[in-house]
Write a structure and sequence with these properties.
Pathway: Cell wall biogenesis; peptidoglycan biosynthesis. This is Penicillin-binding protein. Strands 7-6-12-11-10 form a five-stranded antiparallel β-sheet, sandwiched between helices. It has four domains: about 125-140 and about 325-360, no CATH class; about 145-315, Biosynthetic peptidoglycan transglycosylase-like (Penicillin binding protein transpeptidase fold); about 370-545 and about 555-645, DD-peptidase/beta-lactamase superfamily (Beta-lactamase, 3-Layer(aba) Sandwich); about 675-710, no CATH class. The protein is flat. The chain is built from 25 helices and 17 strands. It is α+β, with helices and mostly antiparallel strands.
Length: about 725
């Protein structure tokens, strides 16, 4: 303002008009105005005696700062100057925030993957004893696990033995002990991993040997040390460690090896148990006492080195005496039924140290009967499977193979094989629901068009055949034509309703003959749904209570009409009484269907009588053809013999001849290989009358006896011809 005031004063001076501005003055507006125009007598502001230089400096500095900010804004994060311009305080703040974020994520990750509560759970599933429905023990599986121990209740020499050999600096480190690692590497004993690391390893991690696992082990060890006390870590370690002989935890090991509670262990006993941890199976005193003793001496010497024992006390310790007492060890640890039932049981069990005793649906009498029937069946070298269940799905007997000890593979629940003609029941059920009647006819002539041309067994055909007779005779061409008539999509939908989950392709005509592989359990459960007229049926090993109204309301169930059910059961009865399943006939109402797959690789019979639904399968594990066994022979006889014993019925009476005319001629059993066979007993022996002689054979026997005009001839048993279509 002083500068403008100066210009103002200069313009009022007495300079001649028209002359230039006096030297030293700038030609501003005020200095060039005519003097006579100035009538403004108001005083002009006077210059400040103290100019505001600080204010001007602040304004100029703000302009500089704005320029710097704008320049930084235009920099990109990948340019070096973008980071170099940051202050130390900025870097410090961001580092602290990043560290907190990493710690938060790490704690969250550990909370999810390594919850502290998991270290309280037994690392091995506790022992479970399975009982039959009548209370008879049938199997025992799982580890021997007892109640956890408390450090405060244990004598000092018990914990000292473990600390001396496993982790001498346990109470002074933070989960990782570099000195312990170096000592282990130098001396060769006293493992490099701390007790906390070992707890982290067998509680949260796998036995995998890798740097990644070791890093996770160390991280979880620090996590455990941060949240648990030393005594809590030691208690969880001693309660879960493996001591050999299927014993988990110090209490179980103490009772097993010395029949003594851990609170009463003597020093030499504690030292022997502590020595087992390095290699439990190798040092188990029940099998390798000398090795266990040498390891015990090493533990005692470690206790002397640390100062827990004096040399004199160590020398006075006697050799411990192993005291193993039998506790119902005669029960098998595994059976086909137990292997299937236990995983189902453990799904609903809470993790705990207590042993469980569970009652199953298995009927001990029926299971023993199934074992006897299968053992005496003429199988040759083939395998066998049998499953029996109630109409509600309660499994009462299961045989998954000829010998569990030689092959625990369960052919009831694990083997997926083609069901053959047993699947035809679903095709015919679909047709009945679509409006077909058992007396309706369908062509039974050879199929000569299309790429898929199945054949009937023994090339038996006719112009027309009723649905009931086609089912009883197991006509393949009739089943395929019926399958195409009702639609593959409807047949698959019916199978799904019955609970069959096997993959099935729409439009594939071979589905009618049972080419979709499934388990015997799945197939038998579908027949249980037919028997109960309430499906799907879920096979189960443990009794279920009454279904509540909400469960009834939300559980999808289906059924067929009473007329359809009656028609289907009439077909199933015809298949046994006058069709391919005549070897399974019973003196009571019986229903079932045979099945023989391509090249005689699988032979099945599935049916029901009374309250039992039973499926039988015979075949080779390598899928090679059977030696003359079809669904109507050995499987049907096994089914019949089991049902007779299970239902306590007498042998079937001799069938009476019927004079009722059949407009289609006599029904031919297409499941019979050649000629007319007459069963002679329950062991598979049959008599076949042929032109020029009589042949006697027995299932599973490689030779047969033939009587003709030339006398008695012993010859090799006839094998089925390859390429035989399914039945």
């Amino acid at each position: 303002m002083a500068l403008f005031d100066r210009f103002w004063k200069g313009s009022r001076s007495g300079a001649p008009e028209g002359e230039g501005t006096p030297a030293g003055f700038f030609p501003l507006y005020e200095s060039t105005r005519p003097l006579d125009d100035d009538e403004d007598d108001e005083p002009r502001p006077r210059a400040s005696a103290t100019p505001a230089f600080d204010e001007w400096d602040a304004k100029l500095a703000s302009i500089d700062d704005a320029l710097v900010v704008e320049e930084k804004r235009r920099l990109r994060w990948w340019q070096r100057d973008y980071w170099r311009a940051r202050s130390k305080w900025w870097w410090t703040g961001r580092s602290v925030m990043a560290t907190l974020a990493v710690l938060t994520l790490l704690i969250g990750w550990l909370t999810i993957t390594a919850p502290l509560s998991k270290s309280l759970e037994p690392i091995a599933p506790p022992q479970v004893t399975l009982l039959a429905s009548d209370g008879t023990p049938i199997a025992r599986q799982g580890a021997v696990v007892e109640a956890p121990v408390k450090v405060a209740d244990l004598p000092p020499h018990v914990t000292q033995a473990f600390l001396a050999i496993e982790d001498r600096r346990f109470y002074s480190h933070w989960g990782i002990d570099p000195r312990g690692i170096a000592r282990a590497a130098w001396t060769g004993y006293g493992g490099g991993s701390t007790i906390t690391q070992q707890l982290a390893k067998f509680t949260f991690l796998t036995p995998e040997q890798s740097l990644t696992r070791k890093a996770r082990e160390a991280l979880i060890a620090v996590w455990l040390e941060s949240w648990l006390t030393k005594d809590e870590i030691l208690e969880r370690y001693l309660s879960n460690a493996y001591f050999g002989d299927n014993q988990y935890g110090l209490r179980a090991a103490s009772l097993h090896y010395f029949y003594r509670q851990p609170e009463k262990l003597r020093p030499e006993q504690a030292a022997m148990l502590a020595g087992l941890l390095q290699a439990p199976s190798r040092y188990a005193p029940t099998k390798h006492y000398d090795k266990a003793k040498k390891r015990m001496e090493l533990v005692i010497q470690s206790m002397v080195d640390v100062g827990y024992l004096t040399a004199a006390e160590a020398a006075a310790l006697p050799d411990p005496r192993v005291d193993v007492r039998k506790r119902d060890d005669n029960l098998p640890t595994g059976t086909y039924f137990a292997d299937w039932a236990l995983p189902l049981a453990r799904e609903g069990m809470d993790a705990s140290y207590s042993q469980q005793v569970l009652t199953t649906t298995l009927d001990s009498r029926l299971q023993a009967l199934a074992n006897r029937i299968v053992a005496r069946a003429p199988l040759g070298g083939a395998q066998v499977a049998l499953v029996a269940m109630r109409r509600n799905g309660e499994v009462v007997a299961m045989v998954g193979g000829r010998d569990y000890g030689k092959s625990p593979f369960n052919r009831v629940t694990q083997a997926r094989r083609q069901p053959g003609s047993t699947f035809k029941a679903i095709v015919y059920l679909t047709a009945l629901e679509a409006g077909w009647e058992p007396d309706d006819t369908i062509p039974n002539t050879p199929i000569t068009q299309g790429s898929y041309r199945p054949k009937n067994s023994r090339e038996q055909y006719s112009d027309q055949i009723t649905l009931e007779n086609a089912f009883a005779q197991s006509s393949n061409v009739a089943a395929v034509r019926l399958f195409q008539a009702v639609g593959s999509d409807k047949v698959i939908r019916t199978a799904r309703k019955l609970g069959i989950t096997a993959p099935m392709t729409e439009g594939d005509p071979s589905l009618a003959l049972g080419t979709s592989s499934m388990t015997l359990m799945e197939l038998t459960a579908a027949y249980a749904g037919i028997a109960a007229n309430d499906y799907p049926i879920e096979p189960h090993a443990f009794a279920r209570g009454e279904q509540g109204w909400w469960e009834w309301l939300t559980t999808p169930k289906d059924s067929m009409s009473s007329g359809t059910h009656e028609d289907l059961e009439g077909m199933l009865r015809a298949a046994i009484n006058r069709g391919t399943g005549r070897n399974a006939v019973l003196p009571v109402a019986n229903f079932g269907k045979t099945g023989t797959t391509q090249d005689y690789r699988d032979a099945l019979f599935v049916g029901y009588a009374g309250d039992l639904v039973v499926g039988v399968w015979v075949g080779n594990d390598d899928n090679t053809p059977l030696n003359g066994i079809t669904g109507g022979s050995t499987p049907a006889r096994i089914w019949r013999d089991f049902m007779r014993g299970a239902l306590k019925v007498e042998a079937a009476p001799k069938p009476q001849a019927s004079d009722t005319p059949d407009p289609e001629g006599p029904v031919q059993p297409l499941d019979v290989l050649e000629g007319e066979e007459i069963p002679l007993g329950q062991d598979g022996t049959s008599l076949r009358i042929e032109e020029g002689g009589v042949t006697i054979r027995q299932d599973g026997v490689p030779v047969e006896v033939r009587l003709n005009e030339g006398g008695v001839v012993v010859q090799p048993s006839a094998s089925p011809s390859p390429g035989q279509p399914p039945l």
